[in-house]
Design a protein that fits this description.
This protein is an alpha/beta fold and 301 residues long. The strands form 2 sheets. Strands 3, 4, 5, 6, 7, 8, 9, 10 and 11 form a 9-stranded mixed sheet that branches. It is elongated.
């Protein structure tokens, strides 16, 4: 005989108590009394025959059983909350889509095109956030994320958006030092006035560019020297400021090229082995808003 499902109130009390670390803070968040929160959690533990929370020092933490249970329950609660909000606000037309994307991609590729999606789908509210590092779909309200990936991500659907290809750019004043020279040759000579800007999300990008530009597979210590930045936008602005030469994708440099702030040092564009892809977990696959955003993204240039 199937076990009767616990109430959503009991599950919300468990989730809030673990997330906030106390029954008192959970009570405040859920507008209940501390005693009511405690009784709901204890009743749930008795029903399941397992201890889910334990007190360590001054905080409540999940037991191994509680961690396993919350890993399954938390995304379900988030989906239930969002589904309830969507139907109340939109009556089944459109809905809300929570999307995360790298800051540079969001600012330089997605945002300039986003009005096309908004105008075509006025009943969909698109919430955007940025991130550094892996996206945790189980512990957040994010439905989908545009990620820079080099291989399939286990457990996620992935739709290719844009290959990440780069070429070297510098400020006009800096570029004038090597005017007329083949930049791959300059790079191999490693002049002392050449500073290479690196990006932490693209390790080894300079060696890869040199290999593709000149067929050179040399190990040059100079290719790893120079400042490193977390965001491609940081590399862009460092190059504009004349700090050094940066490897950047074409979609980020158009305004800087038009404004005379940057010039390309080579016509050769190298692959990075990575691409921007729209990734989402199975529990987001049936969202109508995500389906419409995916269709639009496939057609965006």
């Amino acid at each position: 005989m199937p076990l009767r499902l616990p109430s959503t109130i009991a599950l919300q009390c468990l989730e809030a108590s673990e997330r906030l670390g106390s029954f008192t803070r959970a009570a405040k968040a859920l507008n209940l009394t501390q005693g009511a929160i405690s009784r709901q959690v204890i009743g749930l533990e008795q029903r399941l025959g397992a201890q889910l929370l334990e007190r360590r020092r001054e905080s409540l933490v999940a037991t191994p059983a509680g961690q396993a249970y919350l890993a399954e329950v938390r995304p379900l609660l988030l989906r239930l909350e969002r589904a309830t909000t969507d139907i109340a606000l939109h009556q089944g037309r459109g809905g809300r889509l929570q999307l995360s994307a790298p800051s540079s991609f969001c600012n330089y590729w997605l945002a300039p095109r986003l009005s096309g999606f908004v105008n075509a789908h006025p009943h969909i509210t698109l919430d955007l956030s940025t991130y550094l590092g892996p996206v945790d779909f189980t512990a957040s309200r994010i439905d989908a994320a545009i990620m820079v990936v080099g291989a399939p991500v286990p457990g996620l659907h992935a739709i290719p958006v844009l290959d990440l290809t780069v070429r070297p750019y510098a400020s006009p004043a800096l570029a004038a030092r090597w005017s007329g020279d083949d930049f791959a040759t300059v790079l191999r000579q490693a002049p002392p006035d050449l500073t290479l800007i690196h990006n932490s999300s693209l390790p080894g990008a300079w060696a890869l560019w040199l290999r593709q530009a000149a067929g050179a597979d040399e190990v040059l210590p100079e290719l790893h020297a120079g400042p490193s930045y977390d965001l491609l936008s940081m590399s862009l602005h460092a190059a504009i400021a004349g700090i050094g030469v940066a490897l950047l994708p074409a979609f980020m440099v158009r305004a800087a090229l038009d404004g005379g702030q940057l010039v390309p040092l080579s016509a050769i564009e190298s692959t990075t082995g990575r691409s921007y892809q729209l990734c989402y977990p199975e529990h987001s696959a049936g969202l109508p808003a995500l389906g419409q955003f995916t269709d639009w993204l496939r057609q965006a240039d």
